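Please, structure for the following, as tokens.
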Amino acid sequence: MYEAFYGFKENPFSLTPDPKYFFFRKDHEEALSHIIFAIKQGEGFILLVGGVGTGKTTISRVLIERLGNFLYTSLILNPFLTETELLSSILWDFNVIPSGTTKKELIDQLNKFLLNEVAPSGKRALVIIDEAQNLSLEVMEQIRLLSNLETDKEKLLQILLIGQEELAKKLSNPLLRQLNGRISTRYFLSPLRKKEVKEYIEHRIRIAEPRVKIKFTKGAIKEIYKFSKGIPRLINMICDRALLAGFVKGSTTIEKSMVKKAKRSLVGEKEKKFEKIVSGKKGIKGLLSLFKRKSIIDFKIS
């Protein structure tokens, strides 16, 4: 609605995980570097954990973009699959038409593809599973067994598990001890720090249209951080509404009052509850619950 007013060709604060908007902060760059190194080293299991909206999915898209020519990639976005459905999905993503119906038949077909196509090519085969905290224990055990697909020299299949804090807790289950023990690289994403929020906003505006001149005042930035707690998805949500408020007012300077108006449009009648939650013990977890998304408290690698 407001794109033409500001001179944008597209919405700079869309919630879709577009790799070109990837914000090169230290945490995200380190996570990406660790994952790329692990893949090139042929490590079997890699774990990326972070809160809702902290950029995990975007990192996976950037990873595919950067290593596209080096990888055969399977991207699993639906974690509520059975074991056979998971195996079939992986085969389809590798452009292999599943010809079997049992787990053994599908695994044999996958192994044949890895040996005959992937290994001789010098490329890697990577399975990325998003929202992996929702995988059943049976499917997670099947995933562990897939890591047995290997030659005498290297793993034929690598797996990147992406999920919320519940995933790290789930992996501590004694029933998943063997899977947890095979994870060689782990990275934990944290929200943006206060000083990074301004940089993040300016980065997205610059990517959407370098010639656009929009100013967020210090008060506006402070209010955005207060609302979002540094979570990129929530920053996008409130910035989108704040730009709409600026459009209605005919201003390219986004002020604190506009951000407050944007917040009211997002939380509505829940504003008092919002203030109580943000200042209370529930913190980020409670904040995200207002938007009906399962949420967690982030923790950061030391």
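The longest strand covers residues 71-76. The beta strands are 45-49, 71-76, 124-129, 158-163, 183-188, 215-216, 253-254.
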